[in-house]
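User: Could you go from structure to sequence for me? I need the amino acid at each position, not a summary. Structure tokens:
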């Protein structure tokens, strides 16, 4: 149990031990975090969480005993004070977000960097949280993301966008995924329909 209230207690739920070990390193190397428990399934997590008393649960979307999204609602019901972060490898539709925003506090892609994960969690406990909720902000995209969005909206593919901006194709792919998440869309067509409502005038 974490008795130091200045430290954020983290509970990890993933059926792959190597993933849990990697996440531990993300937090143990940084002040302000403590991994208070871990589990390989949702059922195991529910048994351990009362004693561990975490502030945040990081939950894999796919678990051996059910979909992480479905199990998140159960965790939130039993531990309403806990913040839940879902890790996923797939773009999520706006309808999905509407159905889950009551019990999932943030969704991050598995290829997000460690700083993004830590800042998202810190944001839960700050007066001005890091942008990680399901509700799009007024200007949700950074300057670089708006550049990618503009090219994406013209029908350009990731390889073409990468060449145009002098970035790697993998960087563009990750950025497109973040854009989808921020805008609450699931594909390029849905994103393009929002092109007229995105403010492209300013920097981050």
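Assistant: Here is the amino acid at each position, in order:
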């Amino acid at each position: 149990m974490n008795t130091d209230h200045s430290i954020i207690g983290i509970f990890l739920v993933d059926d792959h031990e190597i993933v849990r070990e990697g996440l531990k390193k993300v937090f143990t190397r940084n002040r302000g975090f403590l991994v208070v428990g871990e589990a390989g399934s949702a059922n195991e997590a529910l048994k351990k969480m009362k004693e561990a008393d975490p502030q945040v649960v990081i939950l894999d979307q796919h678990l051996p005993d059910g979909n992480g999204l479905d199990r998140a609602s159960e965790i939130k019901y039993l531990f309403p004070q806990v913040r839940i972060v879902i890790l996923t490898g797939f773009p999520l539709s706006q309808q999905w977000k509407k159905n889950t925003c009551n019990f999932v506090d943030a969704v991050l892609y598995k290829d997000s960097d460690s700083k993004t994960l830590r800042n998202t969690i810190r944001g839960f406990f700050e007066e001005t949280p890091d942008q990680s909720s399901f509700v799009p902000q007024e200007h949700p995209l950074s300057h670089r993301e708006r550049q990618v969005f503009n090219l994406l909206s013209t029908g350009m593919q990731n390889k073409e966008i990468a060449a145009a901006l002098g970035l790697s194709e993998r960087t563009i792919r990750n950025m497109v995924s973040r854009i989808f998440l921020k805008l609450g869309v699931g594909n390029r067509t849905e994103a393009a329909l929002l092109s007229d409502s995105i403010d492209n005038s300013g920097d981050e």
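One structural detail worth keeping in mind: The CA atoms of residues 15 and 31 lie 26 Å apart.
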